[in-house]
Amino acid sequence: MFYIIGLGLCDEKDITIRGLEAVKGSSRVYLEAYTSILMVQKEQLEAFYGKELILADRDMVETESDEILRGAAKEDVSLLVVGDPFGATTHTDMLLRARALEIPCRVIHNASIMNAVGASGLQLYNFGQTVSLVFFTETWKPDSFYDRIKENADLGMHTLVLLDIKVKEQSEENLARGRKIYEPPRYMSIPQAVSQLIEIEEDRQSGVLSPESTLAIALSRVGGGPGNERIVAGTLAELSVQSPEMFGEPLHSLVIVGKRVHPLEIEYAEEFAVDRNIWRNVAIGVYGCKFD
């Protein structure tokens, strides 16, 4: 049996009982280590699970899947992923490869940012398409995400923006020369993300991400509990001038609030607002919220 097991969002204790049983019964256990990160180190997971974990980086998952799947038709092999197994298309591809080899598969689900974003106070059924925001470079500034946000905005829906992470990435020079030298990990911060959103708004000029009149909610380490999890709400303009320390440690996500927002959503998120008066005034004047 080939298992893909969701680990949840925080630490070694977020795994489900069903997932832990599968881990303990597996002959090999791989830890996918590039689409997201947990808040603890690999060694802490190993101590809790009682199993040695084999790190599966991008190269292994995308080009050496046969090694991961080796023997899984006759013994249990597990791939651990942060969040939920279907949070990344990579894991769907792994399942398709296993099925092609006629290997029995089982998915064990867990919490992910896709549902934990409800901690912001915004209702999950009011979300539209999720988008990813990558690091801009001087020569590469992809802006297709803007069209998806606009489509959501036209329907009044919220948009979850997933911020880029760079783990085991090579520089252009090292990649061109075939040198296996990797850059230090990088995680996009909220100020950088907001800056990139505003930059594209300035190019497009359609008002979808107008800094002074667009409400947004920044989330950090959701599920980490008090002292770890951080939620900050405000206009894009407000979020753009906050210190990086305001938003806590990575990983970060950002929600663009849609115009169909309910007053109860605004009221709940107001607890996290940089300035409660600005938050409510924009909700009333721009979003048309009416409070009793």
Automatic annotation (TrEMBL):
Domain Tetrapyrrole methylase residues, every copy: 1-190
Keywords from the named record: Methylation, Methyltransferase, S-adenosyl-L-methionine, Transferase
EC number, UniProt record: 2.1.1.314
Coiled coil: none
Any Pfam family matching the protein: TP_methylase
Transmembrane segments: none
Reaction(s) catalysed (UniProt annotation): 2-[(3S)-amino-3-carboxypropyl]-L-histidyl-[translation elongation factor 2] + 4 S-adenosyl-L-methionine = diphthine methyl ester-[translation elongation factor 2] + 4 S-adenosyl-L-homocysteine + 3 H(+)
GO-annotated biological processes: methylation; protein histidyl modification to diphthamide
Record: residues binding S-adenosyl-L-methionine: 9, 84, 87, 112-113, 163, 222, 252
Pathway: Protein modification; peptidyl-diphthamide biosynthesis
Organism domain of life: Eukaryota
One Gene Ontology molecular-function label: diphthine methyl ester synthase activity
Keyword Lipoprotein: no
UniProt function note: S-adenosyl-L-methionine-dependent methyltransferase that catalyzes four methylations of the modified target histidine residue in translation elongation factor 2 (EF-2), to form an intermediate called diphthine methyl ester. The four successive methylation reactions represent the second step of diphthamide biosynthesis.
Family label: Belongs to the diphthine synthase family.
Name of the featured protein: diphthine methyl ester synthase
Organism: Neolentinus lepideus HHB14362 ss-1
